[in-house]
């Protein structure tokens, strides 16, 4: 039987995993832990994700993130930023000066501990939301206008985020991680968040350089993106993005996504907009269709449970059912 690390690498590289690799990574708040705590005790996982957090960093105020904002939650969801710290560009230098030290050794202590504890697991260092942080820092409306009217400032912020990203890549590489992962939602429900031309202008060269940087450090690159993102998948393949993590598939369709079968490795749960409404038979059928559409005989598909089951009102029983289907697929 392949070790977890061997199985994951074989799935990513199309070399024949002996099973579908499993990632069980859940948010640590009380609502999600109530659903997942027993699952984490009873189910083994192949992929572990290490959060990007420095325990020695002191935020600007209680409840604020390392990026200097506070999320206002709505029930079970992660919520949104009410008062973006960069609502005015005049605050840019002050904001930047209060960022944590992303080269601090304490930030990577947990990654090193897990590497020693799990030598045969596939470990992924979390980079955070990367480009999605622009929306949290500026506000969505401001951010969309910035690409047209604040080019100098938005470029300063993008460069800052990529520089921080490279610092974290360095830290995770030194800690012995197998991959790093960024969370970026580049799509809306039915189409792109921005035109391809605009995305290309601001992100093409930067992301290509970033992926190259990760690979030179000997790690794989996992990229999360929800929404309708088929307009970017060819570019991600061109860059060498190793794994695309999608929590939605049905808004694009398995048949369309199958165009990238064998070109990039997919990491997915059952579509989170539909999974809780599915009967057991419907879920089993969808999982079989998804695996068939998105993988080849040599791999190309892995499973990642949705980290916030409470947000989609998924019960522990439904989550167990989904995991069991994947493990037996």
Descriptive tags:
329 residues, alpha/beta, 8-stranded parallel sheet, two-stranded antiparallel ribbon, TIM Barrel
Please provide a written account of the structure.
- It is a single chain.
- With 329 residues, this protein is α/β, with parallel strands linked by helices.
- The chain has one domain: TIM Barrel (Alpha-Beta Barrel).
- The chain contains twelve helices and ten strands.
- The strands form two sheets. An eight-stranded parallel sheet has the order 1-10-9-8-7-6-5-2. Strands 3-4 form a two-stranded antiparallel ribbon.
- The chain is globular, with a radius of gyration of 19 Å.
- This is Uroporphyrinogen decarboxylase (URO-D) domain-containing protein.
- InterPro entries: Methanogen_methyltrans (IPR052024), UROD/MetE-like_sf (IPR038071), Uroporphyrinogen_deCOase (IPR000257).
- Pfam families: URO-D.
CATH class: Alpha Beta
Outline the low-pLDDT stretches.
none
Order of strands side by side in the largest beta sheet?
1-10-9-8-7-6-5-2
CA-based gyration radius: 19 Å
SSE arrangement:
Layout: H1 4-13, E1 22-23, H2 30-42, E2 47-50, E3 71-72, E4 80-81, H3 92-97, H4 109-117, E5 122-126, H5 133-138, H6 140-149, H7 151-175, E6 179-183, H8 196-216, E7 220-224, H9 230-239, E8 243-245, H10 254-257, E9 265-268, H11 280-294, E10 301-304, H12 316-327
Parallel strand pairs: 1-10, 2-5, 5-6, 6-7, 7-8, 8-9, 9-10
Antiparallel strand pairs: 3-4
InterPro entries: Methanogen_methyltrans (IPR052024), UROD/MetE-like_sf (IPR038071), Uroporphyrinogen_deCOase (IPR000257)
Domain Uroporphyrinogen decarboxylase (URO-D): 76-272
Pfam families: URO-D
């Amino acid at each position: 039987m392949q070790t977890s690390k061997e199985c994951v690498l074989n799935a990513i590289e199309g070399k024949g995993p002996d099973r579908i690799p499993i990632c069980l990574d859940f948010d640590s708040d009380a609502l999600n832990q109530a659903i997942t705590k027993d699952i984490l005790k009873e189910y083994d996982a192949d992929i572990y994700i290490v959060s990007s957090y420095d325990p020695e960093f002191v935020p600007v105020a209680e409840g604020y993130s390392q990026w200097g904002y506070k999320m206002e939650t709505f029930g079970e969801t992660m919520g949104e930023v009410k008062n973006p710290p960069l609502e005015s560009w005049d605050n840019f230098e002050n904001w930047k000066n209060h960022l944590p030290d992303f080269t601090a050794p304490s930030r990577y202590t947990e990654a090193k501990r897990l590497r020693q504890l799990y030598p045969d697991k596939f470990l992924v260092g979390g980079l955070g939301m990367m480009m999605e942080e622009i929306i949290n820092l500026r506000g969505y409306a401001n951010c969309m206008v910035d690409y047209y009217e604040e080019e100098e400032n938005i470029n300063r912020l993008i460069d800052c985020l990529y520089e921080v990203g490279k610092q974290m890549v360095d830290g995770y590489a030194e800690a012995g991680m197998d991959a790093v992962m960024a969370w970026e939602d580049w799509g809306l429900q039915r189409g792109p968040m921005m035109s391809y031309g605009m995305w290309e202008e601001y992100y093409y060269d930067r992301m290509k350089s970033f992926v190259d940087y990760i690979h030179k450090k000997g790690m794989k690159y996992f990229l999360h993106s929800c929404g309708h993102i088929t307009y970017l998948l060819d570019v991600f393949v061109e860059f060498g993005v190793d794994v695309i993590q999608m929590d939605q598939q049905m808004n694009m369709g398995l048949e369309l996504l199958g165009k990238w079968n064998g070109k990039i490795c997919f990491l997915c749960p059952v579509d989170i907009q539909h999974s809780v409404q599915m009967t057991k038979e419907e879920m089993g059928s969808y999982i079989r269709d998804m695996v068939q559409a998105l993988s080849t005989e040599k791999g190309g598909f892995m499973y990642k449970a949705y980290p916030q089951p409470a947000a989609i009102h998924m019960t522990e029983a439904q989550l167990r059912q989904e995991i069991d289907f994947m493990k037996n697929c």
